[in-house]
Design goal:
Elements lengths: L3 E10 L5 E9 L5 E8 L7 H13 L3 E2 L1 E6 L4 H4 L2 E2 L2 E2 L22 H8 L4 H21 L7 H13 L4 E8 L1 E2 L2 E5 L3 H4 L6 E5 L7 H18 L14 E9 L5 H17 L3 E2 L11 E4 L3 E5 L4 E5 L12 E6 L10 E5 L4 E6 L4 E2 L4 E7 L2 E2 L1
Parallel strand pairs: 3-5, 3-8, 8-12, 10-11, 11-14
Antiparallel strand pairs: 1-2, 2-5, 4-13, 6-7, 9-19, 10-12, 14-22, 15-21, 16-17, 16-20, 17-18, 19-21
Helix pairs in contact: 1-8, 4-5
The structure holds zinc ion.
The site of zinc ion has 4 residues, from loops.
Cofactor: Zn(2+)
InterPro entries: AstE_AspA_cat, N-alpha-Ac-DABA_deacetylase
Protein name: Succinylglutamate desuccinylase
């Protein structure tokens, strides 16, 4: 591919001096269409996104690309290599305990002064200036910070600097043992139907440190700040259109290249809808797409310790009283109750469960959609 480049980005140093690096692949768009940033494997065990990036690069060799596409596998070289025995840990920085996907930056105080300065300007100028402001605030953090950064912040901010340059951001993750699901900002609900993902979580305009939020919240809050003054600045408008998603591709610790090909096609279906690629070969599959609001995405904590036999199927509505799981307690055998069935009192859709069969009382056993509906 003549429009293809590879860069190795330096994101930190280990104690021995060994460099922490991240590969960055870029495909230059031909017509200046919407640009895209896709990264994978911020959480160490969530490896399927790397295979999806491989399949995307393979498919994109044969496709006319309108907008720039930046792809970053192995986004977190510390998390990716964080093994303990046969397992990859890599969800939390082992030094600070902070979740690797809660270290991105957004300072909401930049919004109001920017809006005051921008009144009367056209949308394109506002867009360019705001993008520059966001990139600049990340660069200040990286380069003009006397007191330094944590290892995780240094990695996250460099990734975020790339992400802010794009109109569309996809952060590829997986659950522990999980069905495919999509974190989608409420305003971009329509786009969720272009992914072949049967479960969508609709998320509000709250920043909690994740990459998707760090890239859509600034734009969404900007839109709201203009709206308070009666000014229409719609980030869903054709000429702006800023969207970010966290794409949960299934279960951790697994690579399946055939499934990755399907996942890549699903992403291309969305990118084709957005005009990023020039192809009619990628259309969304027809399927029932369930959704719920983030407030209704419930964690179910184990009411007791024991050994879990997970029973509920992912993705299918589960009637009240139907068992989610049963817990084996061999210590009770002969003089007590060795089997305990667990169920909920409202209809839910199980989305993911804990990765191990042995749990303590209070372990987050399942995550489920409550008050779900179809898109
Ligand atoms: Zn993750």
């Amino acid at each position: 591919m003549t429009n293809f480049t590879k860069e190795v980005m330096h994101v930190g140093e280990m104690a021995s001096g060994a460099a922490l690096t991240v590969p960055v692949y870029r495909i230059k768009g031909e017509t200046g269409g919407r640009s895209v940033y896709i990264q994978a494997n911020m959480h160490g065990a969530e490896v399927q996104g790397n295979a999806v990036i491989f399949q995307l690069l393979e498919l994109l060799r044969e496709i006319k690309v309108n907008g720039d596409i930046t792809l970053v596998p192995y986004a977190n070289p510390v998390g990716c290599n964080h093994k303990n025995g046969e397992y990859t840990l890599g969800r939390f920085d082992p030094i600070t305990g902070v979740n690797w996907n809660r270290m991105y930056h957004f300072d909401a105080d930049i919004i109001k002064p920017f809006v005051r300065k921008s009144i009367g300007q056209d949308d394109k100028t506002i867009e360019q200036n705001f993008k520059a402001l966001m990139i600049n605030s990340i660069e200040k953090k990286l380069d003009h910070n006397n007191y330094g950064l944590t290892t995780g912040q240094r990695i996250a901010y460099q990734l975020q600097r790339l992400a802010h340059q794009a109109d569309i951001v996809l952060d590829l993750h997986t659950g522990p043992i999980s069905s495919k699901h999509l974190y989608c900002p409420e305003y971009a609900q329509e786009s969720a139907s272009y992914f072949d993902i049967p479960h969508t979580l609709l998320i509000p305009n709250d920043f909690a440190g994740a990459l998707d939020e760090a890239t859509f919240c600034p734009w969404w809050q900007l839109q709201e700040a203009f709206a308070e003054l009666g000014i229409n600045f719609s980030i869903s408008a054709e000429h702006l259109n800023k969207e970010s998603f966290t794409v949960e591709l299934g279960s951790q610790e697994q690579i399946d290249l055939d499934v990755a090909l399907e996942d890549a096609k699903s992403i291309l279906s969305y990118l084709s809808y957005k005009g990023v690629i020039d192809s009619n070969d990628f259309q969304p599959q027809s399927m029932t797409r369930y959704a719920c609001y983030l407030k209704d995405y419930k964690a179910y904590y184990s009411p007791m310790g024991g050994m879990v036999d997970y029973l509920a199927e992912f993705g299918e509505p589960l009637a009240p009283g139907e068992p989610l799981a049963r817990i084996l307690r061999m210590d009770n055998y002969g003089d007590g109750e060795p089997l305990h069935y667990l169920s909920l009192e409202e209809p839910v859709i199980p989305i993911l469960h804990f990765a191990s069969a042995s749990v303590n009382q209070g372990t987050e056993l399942y995550k489920v959609f409550a008050n779900y509906f179809t898109l």
